[in-house]
Amino acid sequence: MLVTFTTDAFANIAMFGDNALDALKMMGHSTTVPGAIKAEDVPGALSRLKAATESGNTLTPTVNKNADEPVVSTAHRMQPLIDLLSAAAKTNSFVMWDRSTSLS
Fold this sequence. Notes:
Oligomer: single chain
Order of helices and strands: EEHEHHE
């Protein structure tokens, strides 16, 4: 499953389902898909996501399942969503997410 995050202030961000659900938990929201964050709640969600990624208090440990593949940190995976939330907070925009079936 892919989850796409949208806001009027930024390009859509698609994430793999497990990463998206972890992000929602780190933001202090339920893992219900679809869902939304009201504009006035975006700064708090952004703050919680940034705090979780900066402190390393992430929900799913990063595991290198294939020694030939580089390990991508949770903080790095969350950066596009942090950018989306930052843009939404600056423009007082809401954020929504829903399942998607493709990256296009």
